[in-house]
Amino acid sequence: MTQRHQYLKLLARLRRQKRKLWLSNSGDWQWLTSKPAPMASVSRLLWRESVPSLSFFVMLTLSGIISSLGLLAGSTATVIGAMIIAPLMGPIIGIAYAIAVSNRRLMKRAGLTLLWGTLATVFSSALIASLIGLQVLTDEILLRTEPTLIDLMVAMAAGAAGAFAKSRKHVADAFPGVAIAVALVPPLGVMGIGLARFDQEIFLGSTLLFVTNLTGIIFSGILVFLWQRYGTLERAQGGIVLSALTMVLIAIPLGFSLNNLLVQANSRERVNRIVRNELPLSQRADLQAVDLQQDGGGVKITLDFAAPASAITADDAWQSQIFLEDRLSQPVDLTLRITPVEEFSVPANP
Q1: Cα–Cα dist 81/175, whole Å
Q2: What mean pLDDT comes out for the span 329-342?
Q3: Per-residue pLDDT reduced to its tens digit, 111-132
Q4: CATH 3.30.2310 fits 35-265, yes or no
Q5: What does R_g of the chain's alpha carbons equal in angstroms?
Q6: Which residues pair with 292 in a beta bridge?
Q7: Does domain 280-340 correspond to CATH entry 3.30.110.30?
Q8: Taking the CB of residue 231, how many other CB atoms lie within 10 A of it?
């Protein structure tokens, strides 16, 4: 009996030490055992963040201006800065929470705040683009005009992270990172730029990206709040069905866009490999760059060479075009651009 008593004491001591170790390291692991914040606390927090206050519109308008300037300048760092200060994520998470708990007042408040904030950002961006007058479409702009399913998955992950951060005080510091990950303001900036340029393709492409982000965040946010026992599935059923149907409709063009992106990437890699490793002209001239553009059922290829004058002739271009059409099994529109190379040698003094 004594041995059994000692064994139980040892086992109890080991359990205490295990728990002490688990909760040690300055509390860094306590979030694993933390519970969701009280429903009243989360409701008050999201209600405050959904207020259409002066500070909200000032920060959002400034974010739109900074984003537009970064997009026009092609500055990734500036665009990231605009994402950090934008308070747009609050009302969107508020909508997800309102659907989960069936709070119509919060839904209306957050929805109107989101609507007016979106319009303020778009029109401030359009104003900046009109005043500056730059007509060049930078890569930062073009990247936000062709959303794919990848953008939808990023939005869903960011929405889940944002909702979870609102339900846990210990991970609230991660919320700015969520805003950066999903990038809500840059698509609105591109919408404003497209509006200023009267460019329908730019405007519609960026609008699709914003709707994709918005739908993905709300849908995954609803699921996370339900998982954390805020609200019930019966109350949130209508909102879940509506957001799910919207996601399905959006996923169709996003799927086609992703497929085109993959086809272009594979085609670009294949053309680049053939041009650099198999094209006879590339073996005797210095190939500097390869540019590829899909053109209906064919492809436009531009090759930049550095070569002495008369080293590459029109006959070389003709033979290269025939070679590429044969290897790629599709029509090829080939352009060769040659940069003349001059070489001067000065021997060393004896």
Answers
A1: 14
A2: 80
A3: 999 999 999 999 999 999 998 8
A4: no
A5: 29
A6: 301
A7: no
A8: 20
